[in-house]
Design goal:
2 copies of one chain form a homodimer. The first copy, chain A, is of the alpha+beta class. Chain A has helices spanning about 15-30, 60-65, and strands at about 1-10, 35-45, 50-55, 75, 80. Chain A has a 4-stranded antiparallel sheet, covered by helices on one side. Chains A, B: Pfam families: SCO4226-like.
């Protein structure tokens, strides 16, 4: 298992309710791929959304996001944490 | 006070020790601007570093990073968190 930070672009105008709904859609199916989404942060102005997860691979993270209807634009392993 | 996610590009090859040293340089002066750096995640392969902070403004975050010798490429307020 490893930590991943994924980034969604183009989400300008996202509301708290939309972020919550999207996150819940991930949580509902994340176990299928052994992924745990831990937290998500959104900037409605620039349209960036950052998701932190623990997962077996970046592909596993992306598969959950795709099935939940919001594929990530970037998925980065972040093995270094302070 | 608000939450911010800032991003550094071009840090490919960064080591755990370098990340720790850079983070400590931020912590040492963050109080000057009322900033609290909470966590940082690095991907040595792509060279992305993500820093989460609480601060009075994005300019305050950037001033600390600049004085510490590693200006951010992006600083985003992230008012929505799940």
């Amino acid at each position: 298992m490893a930590k991943f930070m994924d980034v969604h672009h183009g989400m300008a105008g996202i509301t708290e309710e939309q972020l919550r709904t999207a996150h819940r859609a991930d949580l509902a199916i994340q176990a299928d791929e052994g992924v745990t989404f831990e937290q998500a942060w959104a900037d409605p102005e620039s349209g960036h959304v950052y998701c932190l997860s623990e997962a077996p691979s970046k592909e596993a993270v992306q598969r959950i996001h795709e099935r939940a209807g919001h594929p990530a634009d970037e998925v980065h392993p972040v093995p270094l944490i302070v």
